[in-house]
Write the structure tokens for this entry.
Amino acid sequence: MRTHCNIQASNRIQNFVARARLMNKNFSFYSHIAWKQKLMKITEVIEAYGHQNVRSTHKTTFEITKEADLTKRGDCIIAVEATKGAADLPLEFKEAARKENAKITVIIEIDGEREIVRANGSPRLSFTHPMDLVIRKSGYICGRTVAVGADKAASDFSRKLVEKMRSSSQEIEVTLTVES
């Protein structure tokens, strides 16, 4: 079964081959490999911890922060004491996420439970905030925004997962993967 991403990659390869032939270029297996390497897939893993005040009730965003404390007003925050903020992400990740049509997958794993969120990148992403990573359902972008157009927000996470997020000793692994 071909997925949407495979179909897009297949169409891109066909377009590349057609352009190479129009320019009377010799198209070889090696140039196909070199072109395919231009399609980026970069993964970044962030470690964080739960907190007793995690509510995970925000309807349009979720956030991971390097801050150690969390008040009950922070209804979008799902993890604290993160190893990275938006500004700490590697340049390669930022560049790939800024490409038109970039797809970002966020996997949140806690003690055998996982939540998968699919979102988009944007050329407008700045990645300037030193403390926070925010994933949004909307298209709003600020220095904390890592992805937009997400298919889930904090309120959409399984309550079983959220319960585990409420333990301050609970390690949380957040995997960000960008494909562009």
